[in-house]
TrEMBL record:
A divalent metal cation binds at residues 32, 34, 65, 177. The gene is rpe. Keywords: Carbohydrate metabolism, Isomerase, Metal-binding. This is Ribulose-phosphate 3-epimerase. It comes from the Bacteria.
Length: 222
């Protein structure tokens, strides 16, 4: 198994010193960018301009999590802003075919395609669509806010995904988002996650640089 991927969420960063915050997570693999529109989720964050700024400030791949309605209208904009992966919510598209079509247009832009799934949404209908996605983001909190409590029951979805991806011999990456910390990351890794988003656990830590390494070691079982 390859090394666990750690993707700190800049939602928890101090935006008045964004450059320094990004330098502090130099040990990270990806940077997670949370886009919220105040409709799909009851919170607003930032949009394509800040995403492009983050892209200028770091050479790390941007994992762009779209918590927005009508994601199909925005994928090209976020591709241009520098997204390495675009993650849309299955709850924000009409049906499974629309999700597959959107994934194909994201890949057509040269960007990795991913879907995310809210805690109340079942994963089973999506298991035969995994071949169209480079990554699946399992939400382990209700999307909208950082700093919430991890929902361990979401690991059942991770186990189902792990089994299905392995059976189909796919490379789809399983990422988890919400409440990931040194206390919860080992359970998520044991369930089969490859990649881990962490906001407050990294940026509110005294030393974000070593916290990222600690999280990776815990996930790897070192
Ligand atoms: C929640 C966002 C998360 C959030 C994670 O809606 O999608 O990425 O920033 O924050 P923590 O790690 O603090 O739960
Ligand atoms: Zn997120």
């Amino acid at each position: 198994m390859s090394a666990p991927i750690i993707s700190p969420s800049i939602l928890a960063a101090d935006f008045s010193r964004l450059g320094e915050e990004l330098t502090a997570i130099d040990t990270a693999d990806w940077v997670h960018v949370d886009i919220m529109d105040g409709h799909f989720v009851p919170n607003l964050s930032f949009g394509p301009d800040i995403t492009a700024t983050v892209h200028r400030l770091t050479d790390k791949p941007l994992d762009v999590h779209l918590m927005i309605e009508e994601p199909e209208k925005w994928v090209e904009t976020y591709a241009k802003a520098g997204a390495h992966t675009i993650i849309f919510h299955v709850e924000a598209v009409a049906d499974e075919q629309a999700a597959v079509d959107l994934a194909q247009s994201i890949r057509g832009l040269g960007v990795r395609a991913a879907f995310s799934i809210k805690p109340g949404t079942a994963i089973e209908p999506w298991l035969d669509k995994l071949q169209y996605f480079d990554e699946v983001l399992v939400m382990s909190v209700e999307p909208g806010f950082g700093g919430q409590k991890f929902m361990p029951e979401m690991l059942e979805k991770v186990r189902l995904l792990r089994r299905s991806i392995d059976e189909q011999k796919l490379n789809t990456v399983i990422e988890i988002d919400g409440g990931i910390s040194p206390e919860t990351i080992e359970a998520a890794a044991a369930a089969g996650c490859d990649a881990f988003v962490a906001g407050s656990a990294v940026f509110k830590a005294e030393d974000p640089t070593s916290t990222v390494e600690r999280l990776r070691n815990l996930a790897a079982g070192v």
